[in-house]
Amino acid sequence: MSNLGIRSGDTVHVEKGAPSSNQSSAPSSNHPSVPTPNHASSEPAQRSVSRSIVRKVVPADNSCLFASVGFVFQGDTGQSIATALRCVVGDTVISCPDEFPDVLLGKKREEYVTWIQNPQIWGGA
Questions:
Q1: Which of these, 78, 71, 64, lies nearest to 24 by C-alpha position?
Q2: What does the angle CA 72 – CA 107 – CA 103 come to, to the nearest 5 degrees?
Q3: Which among 81, 85, 112, 117 could disulfide-bond with 66, CB atoms 3.0 to 4.6 Å apart, if both were Cys?
Q4: DSSP per residue, 11-68
């Protein structure tokens, strides 16, 4: 998301509008429909751009959250992207113990990492 200029704490607004004629089922690498955040103001940036939402069915295999995120960033819903994203979550939890204390995770950090990296476990909680 940092490639899009979106930072932690930014608010992203999604608006319903008429679909554009050049709609595709895969995300574009230069997202003209994603507004650039205005970090200097608390007011939402006002731009005249077309916006659309793509509905993509992902495998119902306990990794659908990760597959959905993989689709947004890579255009891929396969198990390999889901596994890679589960590893990113685990690595982040391990490397940032102050941001992810055991009480927030609901279990000991090492136990959480083992749990979240298991593709047979639903990763939405």
A1: 71
A2: 90
A3: 85
A4: -------PPPTT--SS--SS-TTSPPP-TT-SSPP---------------SS-HHHHH
Write down the pTM of the prediction: 0.57
pLDDT above 80 for 49: no
Tokens (6 digits) for 28: 């574009």
Neighbours of 28 (CB within 10 A): 11
Closest CA to 82 of 111, 43, 124: 124
And the tokens for 29?
């690498």
Token pair 């047979």: residue: 120
- From residue 112, alpha-carbon distances to 12, 78, 115 in Å are 29, 23, 5
Q: What is the separation of C-alpha 103 from the centre of its chain, rounded to a whole number of angstroms?
A: 24
